[in-house]
Amino acid sequence: MPGDGPKSAFELAMERLRQKDKEAGTDARSLDDQHKAAIAEVRQFHKAKLAELEILHQAALRQARTHEEIEQLNEKLRRDKERLANDRDRKIGEIRREESSSSSP
User: Fold this and answer.
1) pLDDT tens figures, 5-54
2) Total structural domains in the chain?
3) 95: domain range?
4) 37 within a domain of the structure (yes/no)
5) For residue 10, is it within any domain?
6) Which residues does 75 contact at the CB level (< 8 Å), separation at least 6?
7) Residue 91 in domain
8) Does any domain span residue 68?
9) Contacts with 88 (C-beta within 8 Å, 6 or more apart), sequence order
């Protein structure tokens, strides 16, 4: 059987996580179509905002005159990307929690 061979670190980690979920009584449910669509919309919005940030960043870099200005612009881009990613992850988490609370018995 192919499943009898050595397992990768990823496979072992996933088995441990599934076992922990099973012990904790957490049920692995898949999302319904409405929640999948909502998550996809959040991700698409994030992707568009990220592209907008990159375009604005490139335009600002072309106008930068000093090394310090470039460093400040790069730091601002890093912070903005981090803020966007945190916002995306928060919204997706809310959707997942909403789905799990609505599908609970």
Assistant:
1) 788 888 888 888 778 767 766 555 677 889 999 999 999 999 999 999 99
2) 1
3) 31-105
4) yes
5) no
6) none
7) yes
8) yes
9) 42, 43, 45, 46
